[in-house]
Write a structure and sequence with these properties.
By secondary structure, this protein is an alpha/beta fold. The protein has 8 helices and 6 strands, in the order βααβαααβββαβαα. The protein has one domain. β4 and β5 form a beta hairpin. InterPro entries: TudS-rel (IPR054648).
C-alpha cells in the first residue's frame, strides 16, 4: 500500500509558517509564508502537514484583542499565553492536539516517516526552544507544543522538534536533512 511515487516523508509545521495571514496582528515577518522553508521541503521531497493554529482556533484571528498590534510583541504574546490557559481554551487546545495525534498515528500506521515537528520560536503556543512569558522571550516550549510533546511521550512516539524564527536563516532549516534519512 502507498507504493507509488510519494516520498512517505512528512514534517508537521506550525500553521503560521505556511500562512502568515493567521499570525497575531503586527507580528508577520513575510507577506505569505516562510518561503525558504517551504521551498527547501519541496526540493527535498518532504511533505508538509500544516498543524492548526491554536490561537486562531481558540481565540480568533484578533486573539481577543483588536488593538493587539499596538502592544509590544512580547507583551501581547504573554496576554495570548494567559488567555490560552483558561479552561475553555484549554479544552479546545486538547481537541486540536487530538486532531494532530490522529494524523500522526495514521501516517505512522502506514509506514510514513515523520521527519520533525517544526514550530515558531517565541510563539506562546508553537514555540519549541523559546516561548513568550512574563513579557519576555524565555527558554521552553509554547503551550501547544508542550501538550503535543506530552501526548507523543504518552504514546511512546519519538519525533524531533525544531523551532525556527525568521532570523535563523537556512542553516537551521538544513538541520532537517539529518532527520530525513
Amino acid at each position: 500500500m502507498f507504493d507509488d511515487i510519494r516520498s512517505k516523508k512528512i514534517v508537521l509545521i506550525a500553521h503560521c509558517l505556511i500562512n502568515q495571514n493567521a499570525i497575531s496582528d503586527g507580528t508577520a515577518v513575510y507577506p505569505a509564508a516562510f518561503s525558504d522553508l517551504i521551498n527547501f521541503l519541496m526540493q527535498n521531497n518532504i511533505g508538509i502537514l500544516q498543524m492548526p493554529c491554536p490561537e486562531l482556533c481558540c481565540l480568533g484571528l484578533d486573539r481577543g484583542n483588536p488593538l493587539g498590534a499596538a502592544s509590544p510583541v512580547l507583551v501581547e504574546n504573554t496576554r495570548i499565553r494567559s488567555a490560552m490557559q483558561q479552561k475553555e481554551t484549554k479544552d479546545k487546545l486538547q481537541k486540536l492536539i487530538d486532531y494532530v495525534m490522529l494524523q500522526i498515528l495514521e501516517y505512522r500506521k502506514h509506514g510514513f516517516k515523520i521527519i520533525a515537528i517544526i514550530g515558531a520560536n517565541r510563539s506562546p503556543n508553537c514555540g519549541v526552544e523559546t516561548t513568550s512569558e512574563n513579557n519576555q522571550e524565555t527558554q521552553g516550549m509554547g503551550l501547544f507544543m508542550e501538550e503535543l510533546a506530552k501526548r507523543l511521550y504518552q504514546n511512546k512516539i519519538k519525533i524531533s522538534f525544531l523551532g525556527i524564527k525568521s532570523s535563523d536563516g537556512m542553516e537551521k532549516i538544513k538541520k532537517l536533512l539529518r532527520f530525513a534519512d
